[in-house]
C-alpha cells in the first residue's frame, strides 16, 4: 500500500526517467552488478581474512573476527593476539575444536610464509590470483582495494557535492558581484596544480587517506560549481522562485526548497563522472607512490607491482581487469543516467516517450468545478 | 476559387500512443481562400496541420488521406517531402523568438531556402532576399540582410519568417498562431500583410488560431475543433451569426463580460510617488558607463482599498517592472507606501514581514508553481513561514478552506502541479496568495495564458474574492476586454511612462491619448 503510494507520488518526469534508465539495459545491469560488487566488498572481512569468522575451542565459542584473543587462551606462550594461521596454534585449536575460515584465508596484509614458489607466486589453489612480490594474496588485496577505492570516491563525491552546491548555489542565486568575485576566485583556485600539491605534501607529511581526501576535496568541487551556478542562475528568475520571494521567504529557504530540487537534475548526471575521476586519481597517485601509505590495499599499487614484475603477468592482468571493470561499469551507469535525464534522448523510437509527456489538457482528470461559490 | 482544393484532408485521425487527438477530420482549402482552424488549447488544431505535413514525432499514427493539389501525401518519399516543405507549402509558427536561428544573419537564413529550392546563389539570392524583405514591408532592407535575429523586434522577426515562408511562392501557407506572441497593434499589421500577400499570390491559407476576433476579420471559412473533433465548418458569417453546435456557442459567448462589482473605499492602501526603475547597462572596459535604461520613468499612482487599478500597455511598456518595483522585487527609486508603512525604507527581515500584505499572481500558470511540491505545501508555505505558531491541523484547515474559496475540490491538496490544467493552476496560485490574507494582490497578466472560457471563470472568481475580502487589485494586462471586466480605474503605459489614466469606462469610451486610441482600435472593443 505505502509502496504503491510512494511510486505513484513520483512525478511523471521522475517515473519516465526511471523507465528510461531501466530501458537502457547496459546501464541497468551495470548498476546492479556494481551495487552487488560494492555490497560484497563491504563484507570484505567475511570473505578474505587471516582470522577465522567463528571457532569453538574446548567447548567455548570464540569470534576472532570481532574480538582479539591473546595466544595464551589457546595454549600458546605469548600474550599477544593469537596468530591463527601459525601451524602450532592451528593444530592446538583443531585438536580441541574447530574453526570456520573465510573463503579466502588471507587478509590484504597477510604475508604468506609457506609459499611453494618465491614471491610473486603464480595463481594456484591456495592463492587464486597468485601473490604479489611480498607474498600477499592478490585476490584479498583486490577485494579490499576495490572497497577502499569506492569508499574514497564516495566520500570525495559527497564532499564535493556539498561544497559545490553550496558555493555554486550562492553564486548563482545572488548573482551580480557575488557571482563575479566567486567565479574569479574559483578560476584562480582551479589554476593550482593538484597533483604537484599532493606530491609536495607527500614529502612533508606521511600521507594517509584523510590527508588525500582533504586535499583532493579542496579542488574536486570546482567542476560542480559551474553546473550548479548555471542552474541557480536560471532558476532564480523562474516565477515560482519570484512568488516565494514575494511571499517573504528568506533566501536560504528559497534556495533549499525551491531552487535546489530543480537544480539537482543537472548535478546528478555529473556525479558518476566525478566518481570515476576520483577513483582514477587515487589509483594514479598510488601508482606513483604518492598515495596511500605503504601496505594499504590499493589498486594503484597493484598496477605498480605489475609494472615492476613483468615476469608475473597475473599482477598486471588482475589490476587491469579489476580497474577496467569498475570504471566501465561506472561509465555505463553514468551514461544511462545522463540519457535518462535528457528529455531529447529517445531510446526506442517506437516506445512511450514524447506523447505521454504532454501537459494536461484543459479538461482532463479533474473537471473544473461549476463555480459553486462564485455565483451569488 | 478553383474547382480542386489546394489542401484536402479526408477523414484524418491522428493518435499518440493509442490516445486519439484528432478524430476523423475532413477539411479543404481552395486557392486564394483562408480557412481558420479554431479551438482551445489541446483541441488538436496544430497537430492536424503538422500531421498533414508529416511533421509529427515518430510515435504519432496518422490515418486517412491528405491531398495537396490532388497528390496523395501518403505516397511521398522523404526526398519528396523535403522538396514539398518550404516550397509548395510555407510555414509560419507562433514563436518568432525561437523560429529563427540566432547564429545566422537574416540574409543567410532567407538565402538558405532560396538555395535549397530554387538553386539561387550569391548575388542572385541576395537580390531576391532583398525583394522579399521589401514585400513584407520591412524598413532598411539592406541593413536588415546583415542583421542578427536578436537585433530585431518580435514583429520584425515574424515578418522575416513570413518572407521565408513565401520565398518560394508556396501554394499553401500554414500559419500556426502567427500573431499570438505579438502586441495587438503589431498583430494587426502582420495579419494585414498576410492578407495582402495572399491575394497577390493566390495562396491558400490555413490559419490556426484561438482568437475568434481575428477569425471574424481575416478568414473566409472557419472550422471549429473541440477535443480533436470537428464541431462545425462553414463560412465565417454563417458560423458567427448562426452557430449550429453547442460548443461554438459557448466559445462565442466566452468573451469577458461584466464589470467590477466591489465598491472601492476612499481609504488609500498603496501609494507611490516619483517611482522609477532604471536598469544599468553593461560597462565596457575603460569606458564610462552608459546612462541606465529607464524601464519606468518617475510616476505617481495610488490605489484605494477594494479598488482595482488596471495597468495596460504592450510588451516592453514597463508594466510588469512597475508591479515588481511596487512589491520591492526589483530595485527602484521613489516613495512606496503600503497602508502606513514606507516600503521603500525597509530591508531584510522587516521587509519580509511586510510581504505578507501584498501578494502576486503571475502570468504563466506552468512556471509559477514549484513542480516538486504537492499543492498543499505550495499553498501553505507562506502561512507556515509567517505564522510558525499555527499547528499542523490548523494549517490543513486553512488550506482546505482556501481551496474551497477558489473553487477547487479538497482532493487537490495531495496532488502535484503537473496534474492540473492551466486554469486550475492559476486558481492554485491565487489560493497561495490569498491564504496569507493580503491587502493587495498584484495580478500580472493572470488570464493571458488561458483559453477564453477559462479566462471568464477566473475573472468571475477574482471579482468575487475582491467583493468578499475587500482586496485591492493591481491588474496588469494587455487585453483590454479583460481589463474592462476587472478594473475601476486604468493606467495606460508606453515606454515606461503613463500615457493616460482615469476611470476605466471613460478611458475606453473616449480615449484622449492617440496611443490609447490605436490600442483600442487594434483590439476591436
UniProtKB/TrEMBL annotation, chain A:
Superkingdom of the organism of origin: Bacteria
Membrane topology annotation: Multi-pass membrane protein
Record's keyword terms, sorted: Membrane, Transmembrane, Transmembrane helix, Transport
TM region positions: 27-48, 150-174, 186-203, 209-228, 265-292, 312-334
Family matches, as SUPFAM superfamilies: MetI-like
ABC transmembrane type-1 domain residues: 146-338
Protein family according to the UniProt entry: Belongs to the binding-protein-dependent transport system permease family.
UniProt-recorded name of the protein: ABC transporter permease
Taxonomic source organism: Modicisalibacter tunisiensis
UniProtKB/TrEMBL annotation, chain B:
Homology family: Belongs to the ABC transporter superfamily.
Molecular function via GO: ATP binding
Compartment list: Cell inner membrane
Lineage, uppermost ranks: Bacteria, Pseudomonadati, Pseudomonadota, Gammaproteobacteria, Oceanospirillales
Chief localization: membrane
Domain ABC transporter: residue ranges: 7-252, 280-520
Pfam families the UniProt entry points to: ABC_tran (PF00005), oligo_HPY (PF08352)
Gene3D superfamilies, A to Z: P-loop containing nucleotide triphosphate hydrolases
Transmembrane segments: none
EC number: 7.4.2.9
Protein name as catalogued: ABC-type dipeptide transporter
Keyword Cell membrane: yes
Root EC class: translocase
Keywords from the UniProt entry: ATP-binding, Cell membrane, Membrane, Nucleotide-binding, Transport
Signal peptide span: none
Matches recorded under CDD domains: ABC_NikE_OppD_transporters
Reaction(s) catalysed by this chain's protein: a dipeptide(out) + ATP + H2O = a dipeptide(in) + ADP + phosphate + H(+)
Membrane topology of this protein: Peripheral membrane protein
Amino acid at each position: 500500500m505505502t509502496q504503491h503510494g510512494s511510486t505513484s507520488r513520483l512525478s511523471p518526469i521522475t517515473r519516465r526517467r526511471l523507465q528510461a534508465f531501466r530501458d537502457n539495459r547496459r546501464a541497468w545491469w551495470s548498476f546492479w552488478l556494481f551495487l552487488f560488487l560494492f555490497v560484497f566488498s563491504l563484507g570484505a572481512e567475511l570473505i578474505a581474512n587471516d582470522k577465522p569468522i567463528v571457532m569453538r575451542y574446548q567447548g567455548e565459542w570464540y569470534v576472532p573476527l570481532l574480538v582479539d584473543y591473546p595466544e595464551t587462551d589457546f595454549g600458546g606462550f605469548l600474550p599477544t593476539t593469537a596468530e591463527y594461521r601459525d601451524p602450532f596454534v592451528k593444530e592446538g585449536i583443531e585438536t580441541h575444536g574447530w574453526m570456520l575460515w573465510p573463503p579466502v584465508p588471507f587478509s590484504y596484509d597477510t604475508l604468506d610464509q609457506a609459499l611453494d614458489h618465491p614471491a610473486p607466486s603464480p595463481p594456484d589453489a591456495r592463492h587464486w590470483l597468485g601473490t604479489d612480490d611480498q607474498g600477499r594474496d592478490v585476490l584479498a588485496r583486490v577485494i579490499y582495494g576495490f572497497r577502499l577505492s569506492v569508499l574514497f570516491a564516495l566520500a570525495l563525491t559527497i564532499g564535493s557535492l556539498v561544497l559545490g552546491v553550496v558555493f555554486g548555489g550562492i553564486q548563482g542565486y545572488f548573482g551580480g558581484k557575488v557571482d563575479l568575485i566567486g567565479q574569479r576566485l574559483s578560476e584562480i583556485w582551479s589554476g593550482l596544480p593538484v597533483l604537484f600539491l599532493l606530491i609536495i605534501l607527500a614529502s612533508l607529511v606521511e600521507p594517509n587517506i584523510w590527508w588525500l581526501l582533504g586535499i583532493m576535496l579542496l579542488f574536486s568541487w570546482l567542476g560542480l560549481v559551474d553546473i550548479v551556478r548555471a542552474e541557480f542562475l536560471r532558476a532564480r528568475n523562474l516565477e515560482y522562485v519570484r512568488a516565494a520571494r514575494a511571499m517573504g521567504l528568506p533566501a536560504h529557504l528559497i534556495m533549499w526548497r525551491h531552487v535546489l530540487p530543480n537544480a539537482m537534475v543537472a548535478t546528478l548526471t555529473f556525479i558518476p563522472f566525478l566518481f570515476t575521476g576520483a577513483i582514477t586519481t587515487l589509483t594514479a597517485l598510488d601508482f606513483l607512490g604518492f598515495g596511500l601509505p605503504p601496505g594499504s590495499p590499493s589498486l594503484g599499487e597493484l598496477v605498480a607491482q605489475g609494472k615492476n614484475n613483468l615476469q608475473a603477468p597475473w599482477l598486471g592482468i588482475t589490476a587491469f581487469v579489476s580497474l577496467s571493470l569498475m570504471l566501465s561499469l561506472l561509465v555505463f551507469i553514468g551514461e544511462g543516467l545522463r540519457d535518462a535525464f535528457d528529455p531529447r534522448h529517445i531510446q526506442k523510437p517506437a516506445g512511450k516517450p514524447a506523447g505521454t509527456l504532454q501537459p494536461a489538457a484543459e479538461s482532463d482528470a479533474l473537471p473544473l468545478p461549476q463555480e459553486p461559490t462564485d455565483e451569488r | 476559387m478553383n474547382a480542386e482544393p489546394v489542401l484536402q484532408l479526408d477523414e484524418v485521425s491522428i493518435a499518440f500512443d493509442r490516445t486519439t487527438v484528432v478524430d476523423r477530420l475532413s477539411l479543404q482549402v481552395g486557392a486564394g481562400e483562408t480557412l481558420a482552424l479554431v479551438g482551445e488549447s489541446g483541441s488538436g488544431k496544430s497537430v492536424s496541420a503538422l500531421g498533414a505535413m508529416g511533421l509529427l514525432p515518430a510515435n504519432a499514427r496518422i490515418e486517412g488521406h491528405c491531398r495537396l493539389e490532388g497528390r496523395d501525401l501518403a505516397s511521398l518519399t522523404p526526398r519528396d517531402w523535403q522538396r514539398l516543405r518550404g516550397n509548395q507549402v510555407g510555414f509560419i509558427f507562433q514563436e518568432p523568438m525561437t523560429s529563427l536561428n540566432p547564429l545566422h544573419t537574416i540574409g543567410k537564413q532567407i538565402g538558405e531556402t532560396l538555395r535549397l529550392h530554387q538553386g539561387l546563389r550569391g548575388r542572385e539570392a541576395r537580390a531576391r532576399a532583398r525583394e522579399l524583405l521589401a514585400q513584407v514591408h520591412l524598413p532598411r532592407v539592406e541593413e536588415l540582410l546583415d542583421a542578427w535575429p536578436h537585433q530585431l523586434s518580435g514583429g520584425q522577426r515574424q515578418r522575416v519568417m513570413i518572407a521565408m515562408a513565401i520565398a518560394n511562392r508556396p501554394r499553401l501557407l500554414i500559419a500556426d498562431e502567427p500573431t499570438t506572441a505579438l502586441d495587438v497593434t503589431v498583430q494587426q499589421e502582420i495579419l494585414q500583410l498576410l492578407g495582402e500577400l495572399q491575394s497577390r499570390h493566390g495562396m491558400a491559407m490555413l490559419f490556426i488560431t484561438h482568437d475568434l476576433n481575428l477569425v471574424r476579420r481575416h478568414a473566409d471559412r472557419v472550422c471549429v475543433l473541440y477535443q480533436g473533433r470537428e464541431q462545425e465548418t462553414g463560412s465565417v458569417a454563417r458560423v458567427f451569426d448562426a452557430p449550429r453546435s453547442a460548443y461554438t456557442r459557448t466559445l462565442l459567448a466566452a468573451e469577458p463580460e461584466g464589470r467590477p462589482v466591489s465598491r472601492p473605499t476612499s481609504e488609500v492602501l498603496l501609494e507611490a510617488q516619483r517611482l522609477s526603475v532604471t536598469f544599468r547597462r553593461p560597462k565596457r572596459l575603460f569606458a564610462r558607463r552608459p546612462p541606465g535604461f529607464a524601464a519606468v520613468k518617475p510616476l505617481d499612482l495610488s490605489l484605494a482599498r477594494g479598488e482595482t487599478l488596471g495597468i495596460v500597455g504592450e510588451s516592453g511598456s514597463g508594466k510588469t517592472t512597475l508591479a515588481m518595483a511596487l512589491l520591492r522585487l526589483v530595485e527602484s527609486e521613489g516613495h512606496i507606501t503600503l497602508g502606513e508603512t514606507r516600503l521603500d525604507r525597509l530591508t531584510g527581515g522587516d521587509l519580509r514581514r511586510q510581504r505578507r500584505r501584498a501578494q502576486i499572481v503571475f502570468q504563466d500558470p506552468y512556471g509559477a508553481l514549484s513542480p516538486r511540491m504537492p499543492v498543499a505545501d505550495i499553498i501553505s508555505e507562506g502561512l507556515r513561514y509567517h505564522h510558525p505558531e499555527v499547528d499542523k491541523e490548523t494549517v490543513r484547515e486553512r488550506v482546505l478552506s482556501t481551496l474551497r474559496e477558489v473553487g477547487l475540490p479538497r482532493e487537490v491538496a495531495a496532488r502535484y502541479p503537473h496534474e492540473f490544467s492551466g486554469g486550475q493552476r492559476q486558481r492554485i496560485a491565487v489560493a497561495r496568495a490569498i491564504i496569507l490574507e493580503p491587502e493587495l494582490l498584484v495580478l500580472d497578466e493572470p488570464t493571458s495564458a488561458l483559453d477564453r472560457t477559462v479566462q471568464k471563470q477566473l475573472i468571475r472568481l477574482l471579482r468575487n474574492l475582491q467583493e468578499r475580502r475587500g482586496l485591492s487589485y493591481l491588474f496588469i494586462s494587455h487585453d483590454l476586454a479583460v481589463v474592462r471586466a476587472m478594473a475601476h480605474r486604468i493606467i495606460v503605459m508606453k515606454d515606461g511612462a503613463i500615457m493616460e489614466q482615469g476611470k476605466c469606462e471613460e478611458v475606453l469610451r473616449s480615449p484622449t491619448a492617440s496611443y490609447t486610441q490605436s490600442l483600442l482600435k487594434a483590439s476591436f472593443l
